[in-house]
Write a structure and sequence with these properties.
The protein has about 450 residues and is of the alpha/beta class. The chain contains 20 helices and ten strands. It has a five-stranded parallel beta sheet with strand order 7-8-9-6-10, sandwiched between helices. Strands 1-2-3 form a three-stranded mixed beta sheet. Helix 15 packs antiparallel against helix 17. Bound molecules: adenosine-5'-diphosphate (ADP) and magnesium ion. The site of adenosine-5'-diphosphate has 17 residues, from helix 5 and helix 12. Adenosine-5'-diphosphate (ADP) binds next to helix 5 and helix 12.
Length: about 450
């Protein structure tokens, strides 16, 4: 048996071959063997943070054990532990390439700046589409020039749409570009509890120091500030202090500042000083792109048809898309079988059932109201442009939002031939790429149908 270092290098060498590169780089960076116990029966692996710990434990524990067994045949028990390795001085500047040589084990650090950041939440892993393009661009601008572009940057959007991912991506990027800058990321709830604890302990000076002596303050879920009077007061001073010193502030929220109830006016106006951007629910194209990215990353070779099916069916948010992929990944790794479309439908049944369904009559009514035409006109065969567009839009919605078949859509719209429907859907798909008016129409109609 070699040394701990040699064994782990061997294990990583093997894993690197079987895993995709982004996966490997994300999850195995800064890992090492902390200890080998009970004559090799138990191996403890050190990981840099709790996110990595959970991820490795859930996803790779078997794989790692299997690989370790080649070096330590006795192993039966694998444990992960948050721990940091110390590099020798001449290596501190060296990164990426040789993280695994000549280190000594050091007890877990009490305060590590990255411990609250998910290593996966980087710009590299953030798929950009229509729904988040603007938020992404603003976040990137802030990361490139902290304190100098938009201040504060306020990002809002519904649950599971990527706010936490984006704000943490800012943190990782600033760390990379400006390693000397001090970054503090936390959710507002933590700020509130921390504040109360410091007040109780009579340590307000310490609190002020902690939150005011930073270059970048990233606050997730600021909506929880609502109604907390004393904490609002403290946050107001923190904000002013940083702002005056041109320190970057980024806030995320599930709603815009004006809709946060019980928020002092002086704070609300400050939240609106810089740039406000929203993240919308992902459209079909973005959902498809995200699925592609995530399935490739997990080495799931899913056929395009299956990806399209999932993208059509699962529409609410990105967390649900990930949920769908988790189910599929579990199935594929258990059965080692090729996944069919029918099997996918079955697997995702529970997720799809929760999808809102809308009666076609209601869609017709909504479209007619929106375009100010009569139902009779919509279903007629008149060829006027003012009727053709609403017809194509409804075809598109029935197809992409409700997954109706082309013949069924033809039937709903009183058409004999479903090739008209295929043509209509294709036309709108194309238009969506270069006609923002149509996109706005469709977004508004979807909102009215409560699809968001
Ligand atoms: P929120 O904070 O808005 O509730 P999160 O940032 O936690 O949402 O995102 C939920 C999940 O979806 C995360 O796993 C995140 O990585 C993923 N996700 C969100 N947006 C994207 C995107 N544009 N590209 C890739 N993954 C995304
Ligand atoms: Mg979040």
């Amino acid at each position: 048996m070699g040394s701990k270092e040699e064994i782990w290098e061997g294990v990583l060498g093997e894993l690197e071959i079987t895993l995709s590169r982004p996966n490997f780089n994300t999850w195995f960076k800064d890992t090492f063997i902390v200890d080998i116990k009970n004559n090799g029966k138990k191996v403890i692996v050190g990981v840099p943070n709790t996110f990595t710990l959970e991820w490795l434990e859930n996803k790779y524990s078997e794989e790692i054990k299997k690989t370790l067994r080649k070096f330590i045949p006795e192993i039966s028990d694998l444990e992960f532990q948050v721990a940091h390795l110390e590099k020798t001085s001449e290596e501190t500047e060296e990164k990426e390439e040789k993280p695994l040589k000549h280190f000594e084990f050091k007890a877990p650090q009490k305060f590590s700046k990255t411990k609250d950041l998910n290593p996966y939440f980087t710009f590299q892993n953030f798929v950009v589409g229509e729904s988040n393009r603007f938020a992404h661009a603003a976040a990137l601008a802030v990361a490139k020039q902290p304190g100098k572009s938009y201040n504060p940057l306020f990002i809002y959007g519904g649950v599971g749409l990527g706010k936490t991912h984006l704000v943490q991506a800012i943190a990782w990027e600033i760390k990379k570009l400006f390693p000397q800058k001090k970054i503090l990321y936390f959710s507002f709830e933590r700020f509130a509890t921390d504040f109360i604890n410091h007040v109780k302990a009579g340590k307000m000076e310490e609190f002020k120091k902690k939150y005011r002596e930073v270059d970048v303050l990233l606050v997730d879920d600021i909506q929880f500030i609502s109604g907390k009077e004393r904490t609002q007061d403290e946050f107001f001073h923190t904000f002013n202090n940083l702002y005056q010193n041109q320190k970057q502030i980024v806030l995320t929220s599930d709603r815009p500042p004006k809709s946060i109830p019980l928020l002092e006016e002086r704070l609300r106006s400050r939240f609106e000083w810089g740039m406000i951007v929203d993240i919308a629910p992902p459209d079909y194209e973005t959902r498809l792109a995200i699925l592609k990215h995530k399935s490739e990353e997990r080495n799931l070779n899913l056929p395009q048809k299956i990806l399209e099916f999932i993208a059509r069916q699962i529409q609410n948010n990105i967390r649900e898309l990930e949920g769908a992929l988790n189910k599929i990944e579990a199935y594929v790794s258990l059965t080692q079988k090729e996944l069919t479309l029918a099997q996918t439908k079955k697997l995702l049944e529970s997720l799809i059932k929760t999808k809102k369904t809308v009666d076609p009559e209601k869609i017709i009514k909504t479209i007619c109201e929106y375009y100010q035409i009569a139902k009779k006109e919509l279903l007629s065969h008149k060829r006027e442009q003012r009727l053709a567009l609403p017809r194509q839009v409804i075809m598109y919605l029935l197809r992409h939002e409700f997954n109706y078949s082309f013949p069924k859509i033809a039937e709903i719209l009183n058409r004999k031939d479903h090739t008209t429907v295929i043509y209509g859907c294709g036309k709108i798909e194309k238009e969506l790429n270069n006609n923002s008016l149509i996109k706005r129409d469709i977004d508004t109609i979807k909102q009215r149908l409560m699809l968001y």
